[in-house]
Amino acid sequence: MFYRTAGQFKTTYRDDQALFPIRQDGVLVGIFLILAWAVLPFVASEFAFQTLLIPILIYSLAALGLNVLTGYAGQLSLGTAAFMGVGAYACYKMLTIMPWLDPVIAILLSGFFSAGIGVAFGIPSLRIKGFYLAIATLAAQFFLVWLFEKWAWLYNYNASGAIQVPNLTSVAAGGNYVAGPLASSLTQYYIVLGIVTLLTILTINLTRGTLGRTWKATRDMDFAAELIGINLMRSKLSAFAVSSYIVGVAGALFVFCWRGAAEPNLFDIPLSFSILFIAIIGGLGSILGNYLGAILIVGLPVVLNTVPPALGIPISSALVEHLNLMIVGGLIIFFLIVEPHGLARLWGLARQKLIVWPFPY
Amino acid sequence: MKHFTKLAAAALALSVLAGGAAADETEALFVPNLAYRTGPFAATGIPLMNGQRDYALMLNARDGGVGGIKLNFEECETGYNTQKGVECYEKTKGTAIVTQPWSTGITLQVLPKTNVDQIPILAPGYGFSPMADGKVFQWAYNMPGSYWDAASMILKYISDGNLDSLKGKTIAYLHLDHPFGKEPLPYLEKMAADHGFKLEPIPVGLKEMQNQSAQWLQIRRLRPDYVIMWGWGAMNAGAITEAVKTKFPMENFVGTWWSGHDADLNIVGDKGKGYKSISFSRPVLDAPIMADLKKYVYDKGDSLSNDEERSGVFYSRGLVISMILSEAIATAQEHFGKKDIGPADLRWGLENLNITDERLAELGMTGMVAPFKTTCGDHTGHSGGWILEWDGTKFVQASDHLMPDSEVIRPMEVEGAKAYAEANAPWPVNETCSAEAG
After folding, report:
1. What are B77-115's pLDDT values in tens digits?
2. Fewest Cβ atoms nearer than 10 Å: which of A188, A226, A297, B55?
């Protein structure tokens, strides 16, 4: 009824290959875009911006980066947080060395540094696969975090070893502050949303094009891909490069447009794992999944934390925290049992059912 | 279905009850505490949080709050996690009159925001040492002492007041590899250069807290004359057990004020004899305040603490910290002539705090903290402190009252504050008071 596809005829190949071959999909995406761009920013409170909207977008972007590598090209990585760190530190250093640089440009450029590091740590993927590769990326995780701690030049010899984001204005935001304590959440939200939208569109197109098909071929069976003439080295390393670029930009946004300060152990393995969880629970090899996963993993604890006080149930905040861990953990297991292919597949099934509903025959 | 009805009824009853409770709190000062009762730092966090909480409960029960208005003392759990801390800060800042971040990492993160949100940060004995410069850090308070104060007092103690006597000696600085542990390094490095002793920083990563064999192997190889420790949470117990195992002479092992937790030493008991820690507070079990706490809090069963914990150093430090806050509220109420004060009023109170011996006696807390006084330029107050020594069962005072070397520290604070303000430009500075006058 709502998802009636009858009457939508495809008369050209172009129509058939459109991003949204079914009109309702396009409408739905449009509604969410309007919601994100025009409605939410004006109704959200400061608390919602800082604990829900901005972090969900940044985490989705990081998961999107990981998904390119793990979901599309099939190379398991446990070093996501470290690559985020590379992006953040690169952005910080660039802005220290070149203070005239526009922060938005710096954030977009910082991805190239993490792309370079990502390719370097991706080289082992040419020889090893699966769990062994995961261990190699784990090495990147430990090595890079160690480097962030020990290389004092990276944090400008700050006594506390943390990086502090100064107040920065950007032309992209009409000369307003985009980073630092003076930046308003609304501006930061729009900057993050703009970059996330841009990179998502780019990634969707990449994954639908030649590169995306090469990645998928590599993922599904690498030697078969090689036999049909795919250059595995190029395919794997390009996946590492694109993935690390996106992850690096997410890292720069993470520190500059949200946290405002970062210490090295922020980029430690728990962050890598939570991004991996987002990608897996959202659905590997899907773009939509990253957003659904991020909403679940980032948003749920915040909502759970505010539910008991809102209902007026007097429980201590430590207990809420314990309950939170249990509920989120339980939900992860529940979703993996109900739908091992992630929330994106769950939505896919629901959509299929909607298309034939209410007459399933 | 039956179950659901029951559940719904229960939920309804609960919300009605809570609604009743909420109605009482409409007239109250909201003083949230970003506590951590979970995570690797919970063991050292809980006694402090309990002390703070019990003091606030006692004030509410005994005096009906401060100046006739109740304190709505609420905890927000951070687990010492900076991200959670910021979340708590965002959640509470709307109605709170103060932020108690309880971690150097969270302090660093919210410090720049307080200027915009105009909420005072109360970080007693922790945070960024240059916060002492009230001219630059208008909203941050770390009375009664900063980490540089602590480092200075420790050096004074081990050198018997003459730092030049440390010439040629080696001091290992065992610290948590975290903003907290790195905080005193600039001061210690400067002292090492000025007085000719050798400083060997030995970092302990967050992941290595419980197993410090590598660090202690390094200490054994270095054969330092003293080990100074900046440890917290699980790191303290790890270091102390390892020191016992490697037979390091305990009397040459001195910790900061967050490394003197009774429970950590209880693990080694007699073998820990001689271990010392600097402290700005000390437990006075027969102080009149303890009797009041017993009467108004413990006997009613409102306390989350137990007798063993209450006799410890950290619990009494929690009491002192809440006392500082309530005194600041009282000071502000008196000055502005109203009981329902806001964050900006509280800032005035924190800035004009004068804890004298007479006031401490009135509060029934004589001897629990040394007298101190803050001004608009000096947000630390520099109360000084005592060296406490572990006698095998408890911490006992082992030195006279020590004072930090303010002539050296003050210029460093001003310099550090200036560098911070420059790095975070535009940073509003309070021109009406001079930092030097503090």
Report:
1. 888 888 788 888 888 888 889 999 888 778 888 888 888
2. A226
